[in-house]
Amino acid sequence: MQSMHRGLWVLILLVCCLTPSAWAAESEGPIPLVPTPGQVTMLDLGATKCIPCKMMAPIIAELQKEYAGRASIIFIDVWEHRDQAQRFGIQAIPTQIFFDKDGKEVSRHMGFLDKQSIVSLLDQLGVPKAKVQ
After folding, report:
1. Residue 58's domain is classified under what CATH number?
2. φ and ψ at 20, to 5 degrees?
3. Which residues are catalytic?
């Protein structure tokens, strides 16, 4: 079952990478320092044109606002910045990597990750919960 699940994600990655839109990714600017020194960091590696990545985009935007100043939530488009996929050793997109405040990788997830799961991981890493707006 696990190998079938992994095979599905590899297939999704291949299909996404072979689409013409993959070559037309918009520039997102310079790459931020990852992990952010002295701060818990969640890195989402994906692409703006990838379907599961698009599903995560509003979650990432919300978390960036809700955790501003308490945790660093970073998105890197690996179709625009292909060297970052190699740097972080990703096999499929989206991939989320969590770093503790000392910069040590403590968790990695491949595929869509819902907001509740992300908040739970941030909580485990000692980040104060987001304020309800």
Report:
1. 3.40.30.10
2. -60, -30
3. 50, 53
